[in-house]
């Protein structure tokens, strides 16, 4: 799923080389920490948070198919 997040976010931002996704695996939940370059945070969050919500929805759907729970934290 880490690669899935990177693929989507790199297509959205101006500085794709600054996109970093860290995966923290728990017993029931996986937390993905997404870091983007300065100035790209707005592109990832989107107007009224719609882009971030869409990414989180896709991530939740993929995780559910694998019988897991996933959380996405977006950091600058």
Q: How many beta-strand runs?
A: 3
Low-confidence stretches: none
Number of helical elements: 3
Task: Give the N-terminus to C-terminus distance in angstroms.
Answer: 20 Å
In helices, the fraction of residues equals 40-55%
> Largest beta sheet: what is the strand line-up?
1-2-3
Oligomer: single chain
Q: Summarize the biggest pleated sheet.
A: 3 strands, mixed
Order of helices and strands: HEEHHE
Q: Into which percentage range does the β-strand content fall?
A: 25-35%
The best one-word shape is: globular
Structural class: alpha+beta
The whole-number mean of residue pLDDT values reads 93
Structure description:
This protein has 76 residues and is an alpha+beta fold. 42% of the residues lie in helices and 26% in strands. A 3-stranded mixed β-sheet has the order 1-2-3. A hairpin with a 3-residue loop joins β1 and β2 (29-35). The mean pLDDT is 93.
């Amino acid at each position: 799923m880490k690669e899935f997040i990177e693929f989507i976010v790199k297509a959205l931002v101006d500085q794709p080389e600054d996109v970093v996704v860290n995966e923290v695996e728990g017993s029931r939940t996986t937390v993905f920490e997404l870091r983007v370059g300065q100035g790209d945070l707005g592109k990832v969050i989107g107007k009224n948070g719609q882009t971030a919500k869409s990414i989180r929805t896709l991530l939740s759907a993929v995780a559910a198919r694998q019988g897991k729970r996933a959380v996405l934290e977006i950091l600058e």
